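Is nicotinamide-adenine-dinucleotide placement plausible here? Inputs below.
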Amino acid sequence: MLQGKTAIITGSTSGIGLGIAEAFARSGANIVLNGFGDAMQIEKIRADLAARTNARVVYSPADMSKPKAIEQMVRQTTDAFGAVDIMVNNAGIQHVAPIEEFPEEKWEAILAINLSSAFHATKLVLPNMRRKGWGRLINVASAHALVASPYKAGYVAAKHGVLGLTKVTALETAEDGITCNAICPGYVRTPLVEQQIDDQARAHGIPRDKVISDVLLQRQPNKRFVEVAELAALALFLCSDNGASVTGAALPMDGGWTAQ
Ligand code: NAD
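Reply from A.M.:
I modeled the complex. Tokens:
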């Protein structure tokens, strides 16, 4: 389905991003992986993905908090594959603290990585998508783009911002064969959430399984984590011809969380 297309997926060395990269690679797209981690481990992820799927896979070490690095990532992609057809803005970080104690540097980092990076990447890839008359922008937002939780000021503000950016991008590209949507997952059991389970267990002095049942899944009426493969399938649908009329949407996949 994605033969001949090239996709950048930011923050794809683990979790949701890696799952989306896998689904796109299986569909025939050229893949640009991005994210942090041990260099040897990342090379293994890259080589395994290429071998499993027969896709061409390259890696960009770009730091999403740095606009110049984002520019470099897009240039590297264009040099390797000719163009960016699909841009998945997925890289994200979290920090949990009451507003009065929220460190300024964490606020700045969350806004830069979770929100501003999507603006910079969108700005850089749009001209070529317009030239081709085809493009897909997928912003991995969160249920926290639609509703709030205490102690997540930076994350909730950034994710609500991502939704705003998604809508503006969709309106500005609606006649050009380009769509832009936000996927809004509930809790997914990735390294980002494993870290939160540890932090909350320590903060509340309760065991990890209590954090999972009483804190995290308490929000999710279906009482289970969202699967990475479910999110990857949604992202793939958005890239399909049948997804062409879906634009400017916030698409929750949250087991009913935001229905409450
Ligand atoms: P994860 O920690 O497994 O993956 C995050 C990725 O972002 C990693 O590859 C990491 O290296 C990369 N990254 C972090 N900082 C970066 C930077 N400065 N530059 C480039 N890459 C950077 O987390 P995940 O759960 O897969 O999260 C992916 C996205 O999904 C995030 O935007 C997150 O907010 C969102 N999300 C996650 C959940 C969840 O429950 N896991 C729920 C809703 C939304």
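Short version: The chain has two domains: 6-188+227-259, 189-225.
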